[in-house]
Design a protein that fits this description.
- It is a single chain.
- The chain is an alpha/beta fold and about 180 residues long.
- The chain has one domain: 3-Layer(aba) Sandwich (Rossmann fold), CATH 3.40.50.150.
- About 25% of the residues lie in helices and about 25% in strands.
- It is built from 5 helices and 10 strands.
- The protein has an 8-stranded mixed beta sheet with strand order 3-2-1-5-6-9-8-7, with helices on both faces.
- The N and C termini lie far apart (about 35 Å).
Length: about 180
């Protein structure tokens, strides 16, 4: 795979990707992943290599978006990978209008912007994400030096209804805005 030089991107390290996908186990097989702030696409491409059916990458930086397309082609994932060149908010609005749904949403915003949410989030150890984000509840948190990965699973409302099991979660697609 190719990368960009001199760009202030923080590609997800091999160690963190291994840990992230180890936590998910086989849930990625056949899943649809939305990769927000995709950078050069390492997480989404890893998901495809682990059996994801589809990954939509949302990236605003044009050279990075083009590189995701090139790397997807080099890895043989041209049919399974879609790159949306847009700011995350606009990309989400477009996907919502299209009625797109995903099993997992990976959110890796630039550090210091205070944005996070979805199902998987990577952030600085100096920032804290809430226990609940919309319909998601944090189920696991793992620290890697300066970086933290939080896994959020979709849950039923806290009105006494039971939460979804892991098997149900992996089969319950989410809209681009995280709703069911």
């Amino acid at each position: 795979m190719r990368s960009l030089k001199g760009l202030a991107l923080r590609p997800t390290s091999d160690r963190m990707r291994e840990s992230l996908f180890a936590m998910l186990g086989t849930r990625m097989e056949g899943a649809r992943l939305l990769d927000l702030y995709a950078g050069v696409g390492t997480v989404g491409l890893e998901a495809l290599s682990r059996g994801a059916a589809e990954v939509v990458f949302v990236e605003s930086h044009w050279p990075a978006a083009r590189l995701i397309e090139e790397n997807a082609r080099l890895c043989g994932f041209t049919e399974e990978a879609e790159v949306v060149h847009a700011q995350v908010e606009r990309g989400l609005a477009r996907l919502r209008r299209q009625g797109r749904q995903f099993n997992f949403i990976f959110v890796d915003p630039p550090y210091g912007r205070g944005e996070a949410g979805g199902v998987m989030g990577r952030h600085s150890r100096h920032e804290e994400l809430p226990e609940r984000v919309g319909p998601f509840a944090r189920m696991r948190q793992t620290r890697f030096g300066e970086t933290v990965i939080d896994l959020f699973w979709r849950r039923e409302p806290e009105d006494g209804a039971r939460g979804a099991t892991a098997a149900e979660e992996s089969q319950s697609p989410m809209n681009a805005d995280g709703s069911g």
